[in-house]
């Protein structure tokens, strides 16, 4: 099920009919030629008008090489060019394959803010370093951490928390200790399953508790692990423990939560969490063969200083 919520406006989502009906290009075609006088003077902060000149009239993102133009000189970014099926969205003539080299040179010479500046990133870069930075920018939006569905929502942490609560209806808990019971009837019928995510709010941060069933080699197992809603550097400031047990036995896992930048699948495949063999989980459930009733107790705490904690992340498949 696709969610209707969009935390950030995704410019790439422009539909073709919207492209062809756009009116923003009129602004572009009225650009004054006097802008060019600023380009050769070694001006470190070009006037906003140059940025306007480089604004794609369709998606309004900054244009970078390759920049395309039609026979009448209307320019277009390469992303939008693919979408308009070879028709200039401004004059509707055939677009052809003409590059606008002059504008490309201008684009390369400019320093521009990171595209996540509206999310708080203050960095400014020449184009190519900007692209590299944006891929790893710590302000870039996070993907929805919900594992049970193909969810395309992205945004900052607060926005994702609201989305998880309102759209995925996840359990939200306050506090740094928890005691959770995972139930499944006929657990032997299931080889792969994902339980409802639980979100914990403590130390002013959010954590996601995952519980999944999968096949580890030939052995059916359950796995519980925690992910931190924030970046990996900050995740290292926290530790957590998980405990399952019963009938005089127990298993304890202690670890560093993984950032939600790492997909739940990646964390699962690196076995970075509490793994319980199915027979043991059923034993902990009270010995019933046909029902899983596994109580997972846990605690999250803040490390006083943990500069190296979690710096080395297990990855059994690399
Ligand atoms: Zn565009
Ligand atoms: Zn045109
Ligand atoms: Zn940035
Ligand atoms: Zn989602």
Automatic annotation (TrEMBL):
<dbReference type="InterPro" id="IPR052088">
    <property type="entry name" value="E3_ubiquitin-ligase_SINA"/>
</dbReference>
<keyword id="KW-0479">Metal-binding</keyword>
<dbReference type="InterPro" id="IPR049548">
    <property type="entry name" value="Sina-like_RING"/>
</dbReference>
<dbReference type="Pfam" id="PF21361">
    <property type="entry name" value="Sina_ZnF"/>
</dbReference>
<feature type="domain" description="SIAH-type">
    <location>
        <begin position="109"/>
        <end position="169"/>
    </location>
</feature>
<keyword id="KW-0863">Zinc-finger</keyword>
<protein>
    <recommendedName>
        <fullName>RING-type E3 ubiquitin transferase</fullName>
        <ecNumber>2.3.2.27</ecNumber>
    </recommendedName>
</protein>
<dbReference type="Pfam" id="PF21362">
    <property type="entry name" value="Sina_RING"/>
</dbReference>
<dbReference type="GO" id="GO:0005737">
    <property type="term" value="C:cytoplasm"/>
</dbReference>
<dbReference type="GO" id="GO:0008270">
    <property type="term" value="F:zinc ion binding"/>
</dbReference>
<dbReference type="GO" id="GO:0016567">
    <property type="term" value="P:protein ubiquitination"/>
</dbReference>
<keyword id="KW-0862">Zinc</keyword>
<dbReference type="InterPro" id="IPR013010">
    <property type="entry name" value="Znf_SIAH"/>
</dbReference>
<keyword id="KW-0808">Transferase</keyword>
<comment type="pathway">
    <text>Protein modification; protein ubiquitination.</text>
</comment>
<comment type="similarity">
    <text>Belongs to the SINA (Seven in absentia) family.</text>
</comment>
<dbReference type="InterPro" id="IPR013083">
    <property type="entry name" value="Znf_RING/FYVE/PHD"/>
</dbReference>
<dbReference type="GO" id="GO:0006511">
    <property type="term" value="P:ubiquitin-dependent protein catabolic process"/>
</dbReference>
<dbReference type="InterPro" id="IPR001841">
    <property type="entry name" value="Znf_RING"/>
</dbReference>
<keyword id="KW-0833">Ubl conjugation pathway</keyword>
<dbReference type="InterPro" id="IPR008974">
    <property type="entry name" value="TRAF-like"/>
</dbReference>
<dbReference type="InterPro" id="IPR018121">
    <property type="entry name" value="7-in-absentia-prot_TRAF-dom"/>
</dbReference>
<dbReference type="GO" id="GO:0061630">
    <property type="term" value="F:ubiquitin protein ligase activity"/>
</dbReference>
<feature type="domain" description="RING-type">
    <location>
        <begin position="56"/>
        <end position="92"/>
    </location>
</feature>
<dbReference type="Pfam" id="PF03145">
    <property type="entry name" value="Sina_TRAF"/>
</dbReference>
């Amino acid at each position: 099920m696709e969610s209707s919520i969009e935390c950030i406006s995704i410019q790439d989502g422009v539909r073709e009919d919207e492209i062809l009906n756009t009116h923003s290009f009129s602004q572009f075609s009225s650009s004054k030629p006097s802008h060019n006088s600023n380009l050769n003077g070694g001006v470190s902060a070009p006037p906003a008008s140059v940025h306007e000149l480089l604004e794609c009239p369709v998606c309004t993102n900054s244009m970078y090489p390759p920049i395309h133009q039609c026979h009448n000189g209307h320019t277009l970014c390469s992303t939008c060019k693919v979408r308009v099926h070879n028709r200039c969205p401004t004059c509707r003539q055939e677009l052809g394959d003409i590059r606008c080299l002059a504008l490309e040179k201008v684009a390369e010479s400019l320093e521009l803010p990171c595209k996540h500046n509206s999310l708080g990133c203050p960095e400014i870069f020449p184009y190519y370093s900007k692209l590299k930075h944006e891929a790893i920018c710590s302000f870039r939006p996070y993907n929805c951490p919900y594992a049970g569905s193909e969810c395309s929502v992205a945004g900052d942490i607060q926005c994702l928390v609201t989305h998880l609560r309102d759209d995925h209806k996840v359990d939200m808990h306050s506090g740094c200790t928890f005691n959770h019971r995972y139930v499944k009837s006929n657990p032997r019928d299931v080889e792969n399953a994902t339980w409802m995510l639980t979100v914990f709010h403590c130390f002013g941060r959010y954590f996601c508790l995952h519980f999944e069933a999968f096949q580890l080699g030939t052995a059916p197992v359950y796995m519980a692990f925690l992910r931190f809603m924030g970046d990996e550097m900050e995740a290292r400031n926290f530790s957590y423990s998980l405990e399952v047990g019963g009938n005089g036995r127990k298993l304890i896992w202690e670890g560093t939560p993984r950032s939600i930048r790492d997909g739940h699948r990646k964390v699962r495949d690196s076995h970075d969490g509490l793994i319980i063999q199915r027979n043991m989980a059923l034993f902990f459930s009270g010995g019933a063969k046909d029902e899983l009733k596994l109580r997972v107790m846990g605690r999250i705490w803040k490390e006083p200083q943990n500069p190296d904690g979690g710096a080395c992340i297990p990855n059994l498949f690399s």
